[in-house]
Design brief:
Helix content is 31%, strand content 22%. It is α+β, with helices and mostly antiparallel strands.
């Protein structure tokens, strides 16, 4: 899925997408509280200069850290997500979305700037 974007997206961005997808899917599998075998949907969409990753697991659990301390001490995976994406958030039906700037030179501008 990610490799199919190689012609349109810089390799550095694709590497970050793979890292974030791995982290979010692993967290979903471990923490969503869904029955074994419940599907986890992963989708990528490229629109203009943004690549959007969505991982939907229909979890009722909100993984968004409530404080910086919680993020630093408990939610290490989301700390990684925050540092290597341009923006991210929770999907209302349960899951996480993350966006990446795919412009040349733009993939490091603004990364991790979300408060």
């Amino acid at each position: 899925m990610v490799s199919d974007l190689g012609a349109d997206v810089p390799r550095e961005v694709l590497d970050r997408v793979r890292l974030v997808a791995s982290e979010i899917v692993t967290n979903s599998y471990k923490h969503a509280g869904n029955p074994v075998g419940a599907p986890i949907r992963v989708a990528l969409s490229l629109r203009g200069d943004r690549l959007r990753l969505e991982v939907v697991d229909h979890s009722l659990f909100d993984p968004t850290p409530e404080t910086d301390r919680e993020q630093d001490e408990v939610r290490w995976g989301l700390r990684i997500v925050k540092q290597v994406t341009n923006d991210w958030g929770r999907i209302s039906e349960g899951g996480i979305w993350a966006e990446f700037d795919v412009t040349v030179g733009g993939d490091d501008t603004g990364v991790g700037t979300r408060p």
